[in-house]
Amino acid sequence: MTAPRPYVLILFYSRHGATRAMAERLVAGVESCPGVEARLRTVPPVSPTCEAVDPEIPDSGAVYASLDDLRHCAGLAIGSPTRFGNMAAPLKYFIDGTSELWLGGALTDKPATAFTSTSSLHGGQETTLISMLLPLLHHGMVYAGLPYSEIELMETAAGGTPYGASHVAGKRSDRPLDEHERHLAFAQGKRLARLALALEALRREAS
Length: 207
Hints:
Elements: E1 7-12, H1 18-31, E2 37-42, H2 67-71, E3 75-83, E4 86-87, H3 89-96, H4 99-104, E5 111-118, H5 125-138, E6 142-143, H6 152-155, E7 166-168, H7 179-206
Parallel strand pairs: 1-2, 1-3, 3-5, 5-6, 5-7
Antiparallel strand pairs: 3-4
Helix pairs in contact: 1-7
C-alpha cells in the first residue's frame, strides 16, 4: 500500500485579505517542491456572544482547520495579522485548543514557521511572529525562519524578517504584496516543504 503524500498545513486568519494573500504565496512555495503538497486552512472568527452564529463551513475561501489537519501534517505554517503586537484572537483561540495534540506529542520534531501582516511598517511584526513561535516550541516543533541567504531580507523596504515573512498592508489594508514580500513568502513555503520532507524521512527511520 502506497503511503499518502505528506502535506504542509498553511493555517491562517485574515480579516481584510492581506494575510490570506501571504498564505497563498507560501502554498506556491510548498508546491514548488516535488513530493509534498500544501493544505490551506483558516479559523473562524471569535464571537463576543455565548452563542455560535457562524456556519461550520465558510461560504467561500479556505475551509476551517481541524485538529486532524494538524495531527497528520508533515509541517506547519501559521499566519495572522498583528493585534497590538500579538497574534489575532481567532488564531490563538484555535491554538489554545490543541492540548490534545500536545499531550500526545503529535507535532514533535515537525518543522514550523509563521508569517504576519501589519498596517504600519513598525506595527509589531516581529513580536507577532514571536508570539506565534512560542506555542510551536511548546509543541516540540522545529522552528524555521528565513535565512539571510534570501538577499531580499537585506533589500526590502517593507515586510520581511528573519523570524518569518511579513507584509505591510497600509492603513487601509489594501496595499498588495510587493516583489520582495512575495519572494520571501514563497521562499518560506519552499524551505518549510524541504524541511518537512527531510524530517518526515528521519521520523520514519526512527519509528
